[in-house]
Amino acid sequence: MSSLILQGVSYHYNDTQVLHDLDLTVGKDEIVCLLGASGCGKTTTLKAIAGLIETSQGRIFIDGKLVSDESSFISPEHRNIGMMFQDYALFPHLTVANNIAFGLSSMDKAQKQQRVDEMLKLVHLIGCADRFPHQLSGGQQQRVAIARALAYRPSLLLLDEPFSNIDTQVRFELIADIRRIIKTSQVSAVFVTHSKEEAFAFSDTLAIMHRGKIAQQGSPEQLFSMPSSKEVAQFLGQGIYLSAEVLTATEYSTPFGLVKSYIAHEHTAKAGEIYVRPHQIELVSDNIHNEQSERATILSSRFIGSAYVYTVVIAEQEIEVAAQYGQSFDKNEQVIIKIKPHTVNFFES
Ligand SMILES: Nc1ncnc2c1ncn2[C@@H]1O[C@H](COP(=O)(O)OP(=O)(O)OP(=O)(O)O)[C@@H](O)[C@H]1O
Predict the structure, then answer these.
(1) Which of 75, 83, 102, 315 is deepest in the core (most CB within 10 A)?
(2) Are 237 and 262 in contact (CB under 8 A)?
């Protein structure tokens, strides 16, 4: 059974529609990341799930129970949800132990103590029970926040940019640790970020949001190899678009030569664009081949230890491409572009 289902959810802030007929499913014990550009509606989606706003349309189910539709609304405290929001800080005047115990009012003292001890062990903060939040590092505070959110055994955890205030140096260690904590706790989670790196490190599946809708949901590999729209491709990759003519189910003609796809596609249109990522591009010196293809221009270079990475202008778009070992190009040099065979993403125009 799915832990969370959103069906056709819409929401307006005054006159502005922010969520548009949004569908989302989160499986049992799954961590789904809502990823998308600033303002696309990620936080609003979390608020709708939490019951912090009442949606104007659609249905929300948590653990099979209807919590919101046009005629019914279950309040946040009865949705069995744990929250870890960016601005949902710890209580500064309470110790770590009392912060964690905050939501456990239905338990007696001994039960509370036992649960707090379990949570402190889980988040590796044994020995910090009597400290106050200001006596902890940012990462430790977030561990307490997750311990507090999980202490009363919610069926769903909502996390809104929980790592954005953490130093980059320790951020990915913390992400790995909080992922371990969530997996150990067997809870489903919806995580909001606008960082692709965080999303890949933290979640099982990604749901790419665009203008108040889920554009596509799937594993990072699925979304990378088969983006369903230009928005998804563009959001995930640092690629460029090349105009392309369909020659066969696996071959495309571009201004930079023939491009072959590993996978055959059925095309309804003859013309469109292919989305090409840096690792699919090879730079070739103009002196070696004298091909009848358009040239690209080397804009700048930087050395990364093993090779040079060149910023190249291809079809009026800038892209960073790593050269092969031993290759070097000059600034403003015209180079030939070879597109290596790959699983082509073709979008009709
Ligand atoms: N209380 C509000 N009143 C009016 N408009 C709002 C309110 N809160 C958010 N919005 C607008 O709704 C849209 C979606 O906001 P939301 O915070 O859900 O986006 P987001 O994807 O989480 O953005 P970010 O990544 O910047 O946090 C934005 O255009 C925002 O300006």
Answers:
(1) 83
(2) no
Please give the distance, rounded to the nearest whole angstrom, from the Cα atom of residue 34 to the centre of ligand 1. 14
Number of C-alpha atoms within 13 angstroms, CB side, residue 345? Answer: 22
Beta strands 81-85 and 156-160: pairing type? parallel
> Cα–Cα–Cα angle for 43, 222, 340, nearest 5°?
125
Which residues are near ligand 1 (CB < 6 Å)?
13, 18, 36, 38-44, 194
> What is the atom index within ligand 1 of the atom nearest the CA of 36?
21
* Terminal Cα-to-Cα distance of the chain (whole angstroms): 39
**Rounded Cα–Cα distance for residues 164 and 167 (Å):** 8
Write the residue with the smallest CA distance to atom 12 of ligand 1: 18
Please state whether beta strands 257-260 and 4-13 pair in parallel, antiparallel, or not at all (unpaired): unpaired
How high does pLDDT run on average in the chain? 91
Atom of ligand 1 nearest to the CA of 47: 18
- Which ipTM was obtained for this model? 0.96
Three-state DSSP state, 163: coil
Binned at pLDDT 50, 70 and 90, residue 169 comes out as confident
Ligand 1 atom 1: residue of nearest CA: 13
Mean pLDDT across the stretch 293-317?
90
Residue nearest to atom 9 of ligand 1 (CA): 44
Give the residue, by CA position, lying nearest to ligand 1 atom 30.
Answer: 39
CA-to-CA dists, residue 338 to 259, 276, 329, angstroms: 8, 11, 15
Confidence of residue 233 (pLDDT cuts 50, 70, 90): confident
Nearest CA to ligand 1 atom 26: 38
Atom of ligand 1 nearest to the CA of 161: 27
Confidence grade of residue 103 (pLDDT, cut at 50, 70, 90): confident
Query: What's the pTM value of the predicted model, to 2 decimals?
Result: 0.84
Q: 191: how many CB neighbours lie within 10 A of its CB? A: 28
